[in-house]
């Protein structure tokens, strides 16, 4: 046997991904499970001359096939028959974690149990007799602390054919008895509902019998976990703490880390790169139109988006970190009551939090909700959670019109998005989607400090899509915008006579009372439906070209100057609000179609968000004028 | 004395008597370890909001609706 196939199975929050990353390192890739959009992570571990193929199964609490993830895990185990299943168990929460283990053992798949989080278990006062645990469960058990690589080598050593053999041979009288009982219950011919119940009870009975012999639980110290939770989930303090954390997140992104790096990159793109490219193009004697395409089209367009990469990666890094600490589950708790008002449970807030990264996975995440009604509401309001692609728009406008107050301005947009989501949820609940909220039931994981490797990998997974988009959609959009802005039907033209100006001119009157009724913003709004970053790249091409006509200098700086002439700080804010709320991008609309399976709802999602954005930004602009913020 | 879990005060330890309702909700609770005879502690609760309970060595959050269907005795 030169290669063995190993599957990692375990509950969520057990450090399974950390172990997977530690085992496979960079030798992994992410695909989809057949027919569904749940991530399938596959990787390799090379051990001498042997290869170990590792699949990271979705984290599940059981194998009962109620949820999509559970069905994926069960189907994989039954159909693909991996040589060995490594069951990652959180030792500090062993009783409930063993529930999945028992189901694995019932299935009869060769299982190696790795007791993870042993440090936490110890501080909780748990002492294990691993030998006895292995005897009782009838399968090999090793211990590990994935975050500090303890026991990882032992795990690597165990991934071989002798463990597979051992796991098949050991067996235990206690387990045999349990399996016999389950089989008898299944054959008893009683009501299936009742049978399932008795099987669940018998599993927990088995677990209790095993732990009675293998675990000594002493009184642990009262952990800082509980004390922290008293604050974080406090009825009065909970929400302000959440807002404060969000504020710190944006402060770090815009003031401390992301923005300064972005500024450096911006400087490089707008001076060094532009100069160099223009010099090179002149040197090789490229035609004028080609020079213009590269400098005014591609560098101005793609460059204006690429400079935001450090900003976006910083934000994604911080969100991934926060996710790893377990704080997000507390947010679900804090938001449960507010979510109940709009007919959803706190659980529905989690996909919406994902929406801060990208709306596409947020809409897919809504699948975890139990009823069709909940899923529909969540999908319809998720686009209001401001995604990473909208960030460049805020970053550009906030830096221009609200210097020194970027974090507050951007935070206000994010909060407005949440408020709009809740408001629209309320509207849906009291009109079309009447009914009760889905019951809320979720594990509360302890706080943990995530490993750097896991956080970085997640940041990369989330941010990668942004880079790919910059190279594909944004690139081709920039070329197209340049083309349309440099020509009309009779040939090369000045920009204000171009085809693009004509197209933008049709849209512009829509925003006559919004303070941004120029044809340029009309075009930006249109391209933003293809991808939200395109709002910035379009403005980059349009305002870049006008100013850079004579000589290729500091495109981006000039772009700022020329935008400043068209917008006031009030209309800039109205424009940001419009960008926040209006029709989601094509990728999102495609996902909505896929998830809701209906054109009617997809078109509705596209139309009502546009209408809402139009009204809200109008109110903000006109209200602002009345209050005297017109300057 | 039996009462629903949402009527239990913070800090109390109670024992599950019965789970009302049926089907998925009941099954889901049972799989998470909410089985008659199991002790649990109410760690956090606030008026009409969700609860945190400690059960089987771990913590679980549940909404009012769920808690209403779990009958417990002290």
Could you list some keywords that capture this structure?
heterodimer, A: 631 residues, alpha/beta, Rossmann fold, 2 domains, seven-stranded mixed sheet, two-stranded antiparallel sheet, 29 helices, 12 strands, 63% helix, elongated, B: 74 residues, alpha+beta, SH3 type barrels, six-stranded antiparallel sheet, 2 helices, 6 strands, 19% helix
Description:
Chain B: It comes from Desulforamulus aeronauticus DSM 10349. The complex is a heterodimer of chains A (631) and B (74). Chain A has two domains: 3-217, P-loop containing nucleotide triphosphate hydrolases (Rossmann fold); 238-434 and 470-626, no CATH class. Chain A has 29 helices and twelve strands. In chain A, helix 11 packs antiparallel against helix 14 and helix 18 (372-381) runs antiparallel to helix 20. Chain A has a seven-stranded mixed β-sheet, sandwiched between helices. In chain A, strand 11 (487-488) and strand 12 form a beta hairpin. With 631 residues, chain A is α/β, with parallel strands linked by helices. Residues 545-556 of chain A have low confidence and may be disordered. Chain B has 74 residues and is an alpha+beta fold. Chain B has a six-stranded antiparallel β-sheet with strand order 1-6-2-3-4-5. The longest helix of chain B has 9 residues, at 23-31. Chain B is globular. The chains are: A alpha/beta (631), B alpha+beta (74).
SSE topology sketch:
The complex is a heterodimer of chains A (631) and B (74).
Chain A: E1 3-10, H1 16-24, E2 28-32, E3 39-47, E4 50-56, H2 68-80, E5 84-90, H3 94-107, E6 111-116, H4 118-123, E7 126-128, H5 130-137, E8 141-143, H6 152-158, H7 161-169, H8 173-187, H9 192-214, E9 215-217, H10 224-232, H11 238-256, H12 258-283, H13 288-306, H14 309-325, H15 327-341, H16 349-354, H17 359-365, H18 372-381, H19 391-401, H20 406-430, E10 441-443, H21 452-471, H22 473-486, E11 487-488, E12 491-492, H23 499-507, H24 519-528, H25 534-548, H26 555-566, H27 569-581, H28 586-596, H29 599-626
Parallel strand pairs in A: 1-4, 1-5, 5-6, 6-8
Antiparallel strand pairs in A: 2-3, 3-4, 7-9, 11-12
Chain B: E1 2-4, E2 13-19, H1 23-31, E3 39-45, E4 51-55, E5 58-62, H2 64-68, E6 70-73
Antiparallel strand pairs in B: 1-6, 2-3, 2-6, 3-4, 4-5
Keywords (chain A): Cell inner membrane, Cell membrane, GTP-binding, Ion transport, Iron, Iron transport, Magnesium, Membrane, Metal-binding, Nucleotide-binding, Transmembrane, Transmembrane helix, Transport
Transmembrane segments (chain A): 236-256, 302-322, 342-365, 377-402, 408-428, 466-487, 499-516, 523-546, 566-589, 601-621
Binding site for GTP 1 (chain A): 10-17
């Amino acid at each position: 046997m030169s290669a063995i196939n190993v599957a990692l199975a375990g509950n969520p929050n057990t450090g399974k991904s950390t172990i997977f990353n530690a085992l496979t390192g960079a030798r992994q890739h992410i695909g989809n499970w057949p027919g569904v959009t749940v991530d399938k992570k596959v990787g390799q571990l090379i051990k001498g001359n042997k290869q170990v193929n590792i699949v990271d199964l979705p984290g599940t609490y059981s194998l009962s096939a109620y949820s999509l993830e559970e069905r994926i895990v069960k189907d994989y185990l039954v159909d693909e028959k991996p040589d060995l299943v490594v069951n990652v168990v959180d030792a500090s929460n062993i009783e409930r974690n063993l529930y999945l283990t028992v189901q694995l053992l019932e299935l009869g798949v060769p299982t190696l149990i790795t007791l993870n989080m042993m440090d936490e278990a110890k501080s909780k006062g748990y002492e294990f007799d691993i030998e006895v645990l292995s005897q009782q469960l009838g399968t090999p058990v090793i211990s590990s602390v994935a975050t500090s690589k303890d026991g990882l080598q032992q795990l690597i050593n165990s991934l071989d054919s002798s463990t597979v053999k051992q796991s098949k041979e050991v067996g235990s009288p206690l387990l045999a008895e349990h399996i016999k009982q389950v089989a008898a219950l299944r054959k008893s011919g009683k009501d299936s509902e009742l049978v399932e119940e008795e099987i669940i009870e018998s599993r927990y009975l088995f677990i209790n019998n095993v732990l009675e012999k293998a675990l000594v639980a002493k009184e642990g110290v009262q952990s800082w976990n509980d004390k922290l939770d008293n604050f974080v989930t406090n009825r009065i303090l909970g929400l302000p703490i959440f807002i404060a954390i969000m504020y710190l997140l944006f402060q770090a992104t815009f003031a401390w880390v992301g923005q300064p790096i972005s500024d450096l990159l911006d400087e490089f793109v707008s001076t060094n790169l532009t100069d160099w490219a223009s010099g090179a193009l002149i040197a090789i004697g490229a035609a004028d139109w080609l020079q213009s395409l590269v400098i005014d089209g591609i560098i101005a367009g793609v460059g204006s988006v690429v400079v935001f990469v450090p900003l976006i990666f910083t934000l994604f890094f911080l969100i991934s970190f926060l996710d790893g600490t377990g704080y997000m589950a507390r947010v679900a708790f804090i938001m449960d009551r507010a979510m109940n008002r709009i007919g959803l449970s706190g659980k529905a807030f989690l996909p919406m939090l994902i929406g801060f990264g990208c709306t596409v996975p947020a809409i897919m995440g809504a699948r975890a909700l139990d009823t069709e009604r909940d899923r529909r509401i969540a999908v319809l309001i998720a686009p209001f959670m401001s995604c990473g692609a909208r960030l460049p728009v805020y970053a550009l406008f906030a830096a221009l019109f609200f210097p020194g107050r970027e974090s507050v301005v951007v935070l206000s947009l994010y909060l407005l998005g949440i408020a709009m989501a809740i408001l629209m949820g309320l509207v849906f609940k009291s009109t079309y989607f009447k009914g009760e909220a889905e019951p809320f039931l979720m594990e509360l994981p302890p706080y943990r400090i995530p490993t750097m490797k896991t956080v970085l990998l997640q940041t990369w997974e989330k941010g990668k899509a942004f880079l790919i988009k910059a190279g594909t959609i944004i690139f081709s959009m920039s070329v197209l915008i340049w083309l349309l802005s440099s020509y009309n039907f009779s040939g090369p033209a000045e920009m204000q006579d171009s085809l693009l100006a004509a197209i933008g001119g049709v849209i512009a009157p829509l925003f006559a009372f919004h303070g941004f009724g120029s044809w340029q913003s009309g075009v930006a709004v249109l391209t933003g439906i293809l991808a939200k970053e395109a709002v910035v790249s379009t403005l980059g091409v349009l305002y870049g070209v006008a100013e850079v006509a004579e000589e290729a200098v500091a495109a981006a700086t000039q772009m700022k100057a020329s935008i400043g002439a068209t917008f006031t700080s009030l209309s800039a804010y109205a424009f940001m609000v419009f960008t926040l709320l209006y029709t989601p991008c094509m990728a999102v609309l495609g996902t909505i179609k896929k998830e809701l399976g209906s054109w009617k709802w997809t078109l509705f999602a596209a139309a009502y968000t546009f209408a809402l954005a139009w009204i809200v930004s109008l109110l903000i602009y006109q209200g602002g004028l009345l209050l005297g913020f017109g300057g | 004395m039996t009462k629903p879990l949402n009527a239990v005060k913070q800090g109390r330890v109670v024992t599950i008597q019965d789970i009302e309702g049926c089907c998925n909700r009941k099954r889901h609770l049972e799989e998470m370890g909410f089985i008659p005879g199991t002790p649990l502690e109410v760690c956090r609760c606030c008026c009409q909001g969700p609860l945190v309970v400690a059960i089987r060595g771990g913590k679980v959050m549940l909404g009012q609706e769920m808690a209403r269907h779990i009958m417990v005795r002290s």
